[in-house]
Amino acid sequence: MIPVSQPFLPPKDEYDHMIAKLWDSKWLTNNGEFVKELEKELKRYLGLSSLHFVSNGTIALQLAIKALEIKNEIITTPFSFVATTTSILWENCQPVFVDIDPHTLCMDPNRIEDAITSNTTAILATHVYGIPCDVEKIEKIAKKYNLKVIYDAAHAFGVQYKGRSLLSYGDLSTLSFHATKLFHTVEGGAVINNGNCNWDQSIKLLRSFGFENEEYIMAGINGKNSEFHAAMGLCNLRYVDEQIKRRKDLTELYHELLGEHFKRPSIPMDTIYNYSYYPIILKNEDELLKIQYRLKKQKIETRRYFYPSLNRLPYVIRNATCPISEDISQKILCLPLYSQLEMEDVKKITDIMMKKEAVSTI
Q1: Which residues, 6 or more positions from 40, have their beta carbon under 8 angstroms from its beta carbon?
Q2: HSE-up of 220 (CA within 13 Å, CB side)?
Q3: Does domain 240-358 have CATH number 3.90.1150.10?
Q4: How far apart are CA 163 and CA 267, in angstroms?
Q5: Is the pTM here over 0.90, yes or no?
Q6: Are 34 and 231 in contact (CB under 8 A)?
Q7: Are 112 and 130 in contact (CB under 8 A)?
Q8: What 8-state DSSP symbol labels residue 49?
Q9: Are strands 332-335 and 278-281 parallel, antiparallel or unpaired?
Q10: What ranges in the chain are assigned the alpha helix state H?
């Protein structure tokens, strides 16, 4: 079987060496040595001044909304993983969906102003597949209307835009370190603060029950992560550059073998990409299902990532129409891509896809 993604694992002896230290110290959680070291090393690697390691990417989003004291309406994208929307709902805010750019698949900034009301307090956009949003236009709109900006950067680890980390744009950015991500800690995530230094203290308090020493300061939650997860992160960080290079080679082979038969999202100029996913856009849903079935018969997994368009979730009250997102979500498919994937596997996948009756005609 060829899975659509597969977690990278470091050499077992390297992780065992880290775990042996935990056995000796008995300090397993509560901001121990490895958590502090991981935060330091991630800031160094990513070129950031602030990063808070948390239990997962969804908690990271919720902490970001809470730390900025965002209320009421948040303008967001319908084309993202469901956690982007549900984090807004869990914080008792209202998602207001803005359709996407048909090329990058990120939120279309030219539609944002029409969605702003007197109740709008923030913009929560996603760097889809690690592709940068139009951060300049979003920043300009946010300043004009005094809105906070959060970027769901779950896919954007290591991505740079115009010479700086993509995570450094906006007020806060969030990461996911789930096992399927380019960089992972098995489960985990992070909140990146690019603004007010007071937000650092708020994030630290909010992720740890809202107390410091013996003083209870605010209503927090348990968003901490353990020393075991941090140890995995420290081991994996040593191999990130190798993984990106390998994913780049696999991506270029996909490009070569698939040619122009299948459309792909556009990556803006001045972007240093991380090759997190390999999405293709098909002619329609029927063609997608045909190719997906053809690959599945050969034990090759794919994923309809993202489907459905989030504005169509049954528990969202205001189901705004987003025709581009709704259309794209029905015909986009992610092919297998991970560092352990073999070149021969890519050739097998593309051979199956390129059979005459499976070829796209867009």
Answers
A1: none
A2: 20
A3: yes
A4: 15
A5: yes
A6: yes
A7: no
A8: S
A9: antiparallel
A10: 12-25, 33-46, 57-67, 82-90, 112-115, 135-145, 198-206, 227-237, 240-258, 285-297, 323-331, 343-353
Considering the chain, tell me which residue range(s) the CATH 3.40.640.10 domain(s) occupy.
12-98+106-237
**What tokens appear for 212 in the block?**
């410091």
CATH number of 12-98+106-237: 3.40.640.10
In sequence order, which ranges of 77-197 are alpha helices (DSSP H)? 82-90, 112-115, 135-145
CATH 3.90.1150.10 in the chain, residues?
240-358
Residuewise pLDDT in 10s, the chain (362 residues): 999 999 999 999 999 999 999 999 999 999 999 999 999 999 999 999 999 999 999 999 999 999 999 999 999 999 999 999 999 999 999 999 999 999 999 999 999 999 999 999 999 999 999 999 999 999 999 999 999 999 999 999 999 999 999 999 999 999 999 999 999 999 999 999 998 888 999 999 999 999 988 899 999 999 999 999 999 999 999 999 999 999 999 999 999 999 999 999 999 999 999 999 999 999 999 999 999 999 999 999 999 999 999 999 999 987 689 999 999 999 999 999 999 999 999 999 999 999 854 444 33
Q: Tokens in use for 233?
A: 């992160």
Q: Which amino acid is at 173?
A: S
- How far is 145 from 29, CA to CA, in rounded Å? 41
Q: Which two tokens stand for residue 156?
A: 């954007």
Question: What single DSSP character describes residue 336?
Answer: P
Q: Which amino acid is at 235?
A: C
Is the previous residue joined to 308 through a cis bond, with omega within 30 degrees of 0?
yes
Q: How far apart are CA 247 and CA 341, in angstroms?
A: 9
